[in-house]
Specification:
Elements lengths: L1 H14 L9 E2 L2 E2 L16 H4 L30 E9 L9 E10 L4 E11 L3 E4 L5 E5 L2 E12 L4 E13 L5 E2 L2 E2 L3 E18 L2 E15 L2 E2 L6 E2 L4 E11 L3 E12 L6 E2 L5 E3 L7 H7 L7 H7 L1 E11 L3 E9 L9 E10 L2 E9 L11 E9 L8
Antiparallel strand pairs: 1-2, 3-4, 3-24, 4-5, 5-8, 6-7, 8-9, 9-12, 10-11, 12-13, 13-16, 14-15, 16-17, 17-20, 18-19, 20-21, 21-22, 22-23, 23-24
């Protein structure tokens, strides 16, 4: 089953929001990226947040917020219903037909309770298969999907909680025999838990909305691609963030900052005979993997700090119609080097919203360079709110 491990390594290093860095050295330092099953779950599906450097755990909710912070959906307009669709051609510099599609919807029931559902589908394009003797086995089209049900509830005007239940299916090399083992789709169940606190304040002589959000995503069962194969952790991730929206007569400026950390075991350093010489054994339970992820890096506290990434972004809404966005995402080079700038724009007209984002990297050879996201949302407001 080593080939599946290598495929997951490739996907984790390249498919998610990182640049392609194989295990080895970066500027003389050892790389040690975290490896998880279904890493497509870490790709930000929304074009709006994608244009803000992926900083969105504390920003105002929209139709795509179930994937960022479900709790914020509790404050969507009372009685409103929304549907959103995002399409992302992913890593087209490297793979011509890889893409992520995200469909989501919500319904605010009574001003306090919101329910939602979403589906994301990730296609990895065509892959040529070979056996252990380099004999061709044909062509496969690996794909993964996740289906969510979401619920959010507010406890007053300032605090809300939310969560999602998720079913994940990962079909990498289904039906292919590797090292004498028949492979199949990997399946798992997971949950997100989130919260948000917001408050109306005065800043710089004017009104503003300040908020703090937290989301722990993909807490779930391990995934295996055969009955006897190795089990892999899901990409459980902690995100903490804050945002402030300055409200003007004709515009609203939102500034956001998120920090994030994967809550899965860091791979230890092994000796040639397979013994651990630094770090901790990654074969542990899910709770032990989550809580142990803060002190298991073979490089000690310094390496743990390198596993913390951050993203920051801004959004300018002008006359409730035109939207401009920019952001920056940072990840340490030894943990994948997922550092890049983003730009975004959008247009709002009546119940419709159109958004796009563009990813800018410092190296033209980066497989994420020039990545685009396209989003469309329709938000139906109740008549009493739709009369203005």
């Amino acid at each position: 089953m080593n080939r599946i491990f290598f495929l997951l390594t490739f996907i984790a290093l390249v498919v998610t929001d990182v640049a392609a860095q194989q295990a080895g050295d970066v500027n003389g330092n050892r790389t040690n990226s975290l490896i998880a099953a279904a890493p497509f779950l870490r790709i930000t599906p929304g074009a709006r947040i994608g244009g803000m450097g992926n900083a969105g755990v504390a920003v105002e909710a929209d139709a795509h917020s179930a994937a960022i912070n479900a709790a914020s959906m509790a404050y969507l307009p009372e009685g409103s219903t929304g549907v959103g669709l995002t399409y992302t051609p992913w890593m087209r510099n490297l793979v011509p037909d890889m893409n992520l599609s995200f469909l989501s919807g919500y319904r605010n029931l009574d001003g306090r309770n919101t329910i939602g559902a979403s589906l994301r589908y990730f296609s990895m394009g065509s892959v040529n298969l070979t056996d252990d003797n380099s004999q061709e086995l044909g062509t496969a089209r690996p794909s993964e999907f996740a289906a969510d049900i979401t619920y959010a509830r507010s406890f007053g005007k300032e605090f809300a909680l939310g969560g999602s239940i998720r079913f994940i299916n990962s079909s990498l090399f289904t039906g292919v025999t590797m090292s004498g083992v028949q492979t199949g789709p990997g399946r798992a169940l997971a949950a997100d838990i989130s919260g948000i606190y917001r408050k109306e304040v005065m800043m710089f002589g004017g009104p503003a909305n300040w908020s703090v959000g937290v989301n722990v995503s993909n807490i779930g069962t391990k995934m295996s691609y055969s009955n006897t194969g190795q089990q892999y952790f899901l990409p459980t991730e902690l995100k903490l963030g804050s945002a402030v929206a300055f409200i003007g007569n004709e515009s609203k400026l939102t500034l956001a900052l998120d920090v994030n950390k994967l809550l899965i075991p860091t791979q230890p350093i092994y000796s040639p005979d397979g013994k651990i010489i630094s770090g901790k054994d990654p074969n542990r339970s899910v709770p032990a993997g989550i809580f142990g992820s803060f002190n298991d890096a073979p490089g000690g506290f310094n390496e743990e700090l390198r596993e913390i990434g951050f993203s920051t972004g801004l959004e300018l809404l002008y006359k409730d119609m035109m939207v401009f966005r920019a952001g920056y995402n940072y990840q340490d080079a030894q943990k994948g080097d997922g550092s890049y700038f983003t730009l975004g724009a959008g247009l709002r007209y009546q119940i419709y919203s159109i958004d796009m984002s563009y990813l800018v990297t410092s190296e033209r050879s980066n497989p994420l360079a020039n990545t685009l996201r396209f989003g469309l949302a329709v938000n139906f407001l109740p008549r009493k709110l739709n009369k203005n």
